[in-house]
Amino acid sequence: MNTKDIIKGRGAQQNTTNRFSEFSSELRDDFLEFCRLEEDEADSNKTLYLPIFPKTIVNKVDSPDVGMTYSLNPYQGCEHGCIYCYARNSHEYWGYSAGLDFERKILIKKEAPKLLEAKLKSKNWKATTIVLSGNTDCYQPAERKFEITRACLEVFLKYRHPVGIITKNALVLRDLDILTQLAKDNLIGVNVSVTTLSENTRRILEPRTASIKKRLETIRILSEHHIPVNAMLAPIIPGINSHEILPLAKAVADNGALSIGFTVVRLNGAIGGLFEDWIRKTLPDRADKVLNQIKECHGGSLNDSRFGIRSRGEGKIAQQIHEMMHLAKRRYFKDKVFPKLNTSLHHQYKDGQLDLFDQF
């Protein structure tokens, strides 16, 4: 790896220009030289937590190929720093960059539990699974400090409402007490993202995520507590982790996962430039090969925005990925089923406790 000028502990290595802003900034050589002479840091690389106050917290997902109907994101931006993350572009709507700002300026929604409770108590709301982390990871490092995700889970339990979780952080195990109670009524499903079995790859691809060992351990412990786990082998990046599909599938199956899912990487919006800058700095020897193979999956582009195709890819390389994933499912998940979550209890708990009149 070429370590020169690498910003340690971060995925993105620069801040891209916000497409919605009329202003742009750059680190000029004369400014960097001034900082050097003054023995000052041009960039502190510290994470900032910034409170925001949305009026609603449950989001309707209109995209037909995402696999969820409603999502809830306690945080915007994500310190995990996964270079491929599709959520990076959403940070531009808040006036920040999809690059380093996405990893270092984390927006905190402290009122999320209260907003969620109001939503679940609404007379017009009918129970359907709400997924925590439809955009950014609900168990990213900020959760250890703010515990917003845990407070939301307490609300879901109080109202006996089904909830899904997507994470790549072992911090989810902190909330086993709540998760096991939800699981008793089939109200919880956890999706654990496992992108590679190589720690070297993980460190540069997803710098502030839990180790692979920790993630596999998380799947095992959740499964042992009868909490259903789907492993997301996503994204599959040709030339980086595409050769790991079968070993990945076996590893998550051996640790108790009931199913697997996947996507083929697509680098939409600002992510294309960020990814290319990242790979030329971290994996320069294979940068051209990887970028060309990604393009081959998307008709010659790093991105494809067509619903139903954008996350699946097309062409020979994408077909090989699909065939390998089909083989993995047949070999390791033949007799396993991820359960459909229970939506029948919530109407009895609209006021936060069992409605006795519904029992007669």
Automatic annotation (TrEMBL):
Transmembrane segments: none annotated. InterPro entries: Elp3/MiaA/NifB-like_rSAM, MJ0683-like, rSAM, rSAM_sf. Residues 64-301 form the Radical SAM core domain. One of its GO terms (molecular function) is iron-sulfur cluster binding. Signal peptide: none annotated. Keywords: Iron, Iron-sulfur, Metal-binding. Pfam families: Radical_SAM. The keyword Cell inner membrane does not apply. PANTHER family: SLR0285 PROTEIN. This is Radical SAM protein.
